[in-house]
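Trying the structure run again after the queue cleared.
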Amino acid sequence: MNKLQNSNNYWIPYGKEVVIRHHKISLGLIYVGTDLKSINNNLIEPALINPKLVTNYIDIEKIRNSYASWDSYNNIRPAARKIYIEWLSSNRDDSKAPIGCLFLYFYGLERRLLHDIKDAENCDMKEVKIIIKEVERLLKVYSTNRIFREKVIDFLNIVKIKFELYKHQENTSLDVNSIEFKYKLSKMIENKLPIDNNIAIKLGKKFTENHFYTDFTFEKKEFKLLFELRFNKAFKSGFILKCRNSCLDLIYKPASSSFSDYINFIIPDFYDVNLDNSNIYEIIKIFDDCFNDIRQFSNYNPTIYYSPSYLNNNVNYDIAKYSLLPKEIIRLVSIPSLKSIIDWLDTYITENYKIINFNEILDVLLLNNGKSLNQQNISYITTLLSKLDYGFEPDVRFSSNKVDYNTEIVLFKLMDDSPNAPTQEYIATTLILHLAVLVGIADGQYVEAEHNTILSHLESIFGLSTQEKQRLEMFVRWLSISDLKLNGIKKRLESLNQEQKMSISKFLVSVACADGIIHPKEVEVLKKIYKLLELDPESIYSNIHNNQTIINNEPKTIIAGETSLNYKIPKKTDKIDENTLNQHIINSKIKESLEVRAILSQIFVETDTEPVKVKQIQKNRFNMEGLDNDHSLLLEKIICKEVWEHSEFESVCKEIGLMPDGAIESINEIFYNKYDENLIENDDNIQINKEILKELVNE
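Done. Tokens:
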């Protein structure tokens, strides 16, 4: 007699009544007897209820409150058997029953469907469906027990596949390694159905090398939003996962020790996706890019970006955090305080630009508290606004001009793809514009003609992008309303040669002449600039004359002032046609502007005060005592995978400026003091202790 026949003799089917130790059990679905053997060894079947074994009440309450699972009815204490028999004789729905009762019962159901009943063609499908329904009922009653729940879900999936009872259900919470997920994915590949965002992100999470960050990055809604956006953009018609023909190998680890090993269900002509047999790498690329772009936001810690005193005195210190969001999703995330900023900007800026007081922005950001403003913190504001498609001048990222509460700024709508940092040519151009505006406002007014002359010069600088020119135009507007001085410029002019100085001086004279009037104050400012350029101040008059000659058909007026001007005053005209004047000046200055442009690539790249660079996240985010930024940066780089070649590790250390052996020793000392284990093993390869690192990440 084979095992199947033997086991049938012990099996109590559904609805058949049996009495065990004076308890009537009516529901059946259990094995009863004395000598049924386990499937893969000579031990007694764990699920077998031996009526001859003693039951009693000794320590019954202690056992009833135990959370331990029971491995076999034959081995548990008499009081545990008593509890189990009582539970079987009930409706089997006491949610407070010991977890051991569930597992002993489940061992039998597991054996019945995975071993005793061989396949769908040679079985009583009615019994199969009854058992499946019973397991589903248990899952509802005892779903709060995670271990039982996970095991039962896998069991249900495998038996439904085995007995061809599987029905496709939409369930976005499926684990990527679950049997149900693998089966669904295989079906989608077979039918050439596009996979959705939820499946794609699960596959990315499974196959990425950045697995250490799973818990605190991949599950964040911002990461999912970014991935969904980029995935849909990359695959507008849907992504069809392609996989070479292979069998789908579904592995199930039974709860019962009767099996003693994994069970493999091999389904031919199905697909088991991996990196070598599919186009999954297309998803991984998007996934890893999203991870790199969202990591700083996900790991944000305000104590890294702000001093303790700042945090204690400010209501809203998340501006730095918001500024770390990728531009694609910054308007899509559900953050109320961020939405209020967006609404204000979109409502307030209805024209190309608006001149406002900086504290108006601070009011919206809840930062107008009268405390001293750190220029680095202002850079977070400018970065945030730029990702919302707005900018303002002066921008501390682009120039050394500082901003305070009462600073007047030019707020404007940015063009697409505007830069976030200045080029060397941009920095050089700001100085030329600074000098030009200084001359233009010297007479106490700044007319449109002077502004257009400066902009004509700006337009002729071919090395600047359209976006840079837009920002520089706003910079010029800000210069025209600011309190300009010559302080700090001298050092930046020292590197010029004589020809370059002459080109700049001619351009500045053209600005002074642009409005048709040469004012004594303009001449005074020009003289100061000429001195800084180490040019003869008296040569200003000949330059003015030469400029006048170029546009001799246009009237020029000298306001009476110093008698030493020695400049012939032309006859008074009735009215100056500014539009005509501007166009003539623009045309005549193109060549001159090109000469000035040639200077820009060679000068002014060094400033007294460098523009503020947007602060990157400090790598010491692990908050471990003794771990400085360099070693934390090394840690940040190496934890993306478990094994490194020595050459790779040495290259990373060299990039940071650390000695490999010393870095390993320093990091291991810190980890050993905290976890009693080394993080880095230096053997044939550099190996990272995954378990210790997980502890660190989850803290």
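The CA atoms of residues 494 and 533 lie 8 Å apart. Worth checking whether this holds up in the mutant runs.
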